[in-house]
Amino acid sequence: MGSPDGVDRFRVVPASYVYLTRTRPDATEVLLQLRRNTGYMDGHWAAAAAGHVERGETAYDAARREAREEIGVDDLALTFVTSMQRTQHADPIDERIDFFFTATSWTGEPHVVEPLKCEALGWFALDDLPEPVVPHELFVLTRLGTAGMESYTTFGFEAATGPERRTPGPTGGGREHRDGDGLG
């Protein structure tokens, strides 16, 4: 699809992810869902609530809506974790900007609202996650609660040349950029 100036531009698809977390005496736990019948990463563990940001919606609004629609909780105390620009270098739908949030308080008991898309929900210690986890989410989950999480991350891009400082992700595709690193 071309723009008015005749330049073909790609579209970036925004999505919000919500990780409900709770602190136990021996670990911080996160609520994950086992995906099924979605056509994307079925059989992988993922955020208990996640989905596309709809037209006219903020990422925060989408996170709250998805939590209500997918796990039946409301009144989330959301904390922004990171934004992630990612690609799979394929169809335009594969150019993404993801917004990740945690919540430590909410109203309602989390439960499976969409059983055709979610096989199970489970609480897991951040240092003992189930396998497999959706790769770009694993990149975020392994950094939750650590000083290693930057506000902007990338996933799926080849290593850039130039003044950027980067930290390879666990799958080799993630990078973290810091303020003042020449990204303008």
List keywords for this structure.
mainly beta, Nucleoside Triphosphate Pyrophosphohydrolase, 9 strands, single chain, disordered C terminus, nine-stranded mixed β-sheet
Short description:
The protein has helices at residues 59-71, 135-141; strands at 13-23, 28-35, 45-47, 49-52, 78-86, 96-103, 118-125, 152-155, 174-176.
What class do helices, strands and sheet pairing give?
Answer: mainly beta
How many distinct folded domains?
A: 1
User: What is the CA–CA distance across the termini?
Assistant: 28 Å
Total strands: the figure is: 9
Bulk shape: globular
CATH topology: Nucleoside Triphosphate Pyrophosphohydrolase
Report the sheet-strand fraction: 25-35%
User: Can you identify the CATH class?
Assistant: Alpha Beta
The CATH superfamily is known as Nucleoside Triphosphate Pyrophosphohydrolase
Q: Helical segment tally?
A: 2
Overall pLDDT score: 83
User: What is the string of helix and strand elements?
Assistant: EEEEHEEEHEE
- CATH-level-2 architecture: Alpha-Beta Complex
What's the helical proportion of residues? 10-25%
Low-confidence stretches: 161-184
Radius of gyration: 17 Å
Descriptive notes:
With 184 residues, this protein is mainly beta. The chain has one domain: Nucleoside Triphosphate Pyrophosphohydrolase (Alpha-Beta Complex). The protein contains two helices and nine strands; from the N terminus they run E-E-E-E-H-E-E-E-H-E-E. Strands 1, 2, 3, 4, 5, 6, 7, 8 and 9 form a nine-stranded mixed sheet that branches. The longest helix is centred in the middle third of the chain and has 13 residues. The chain is globular and about 55 Å long. The C terminus is likely disordered.
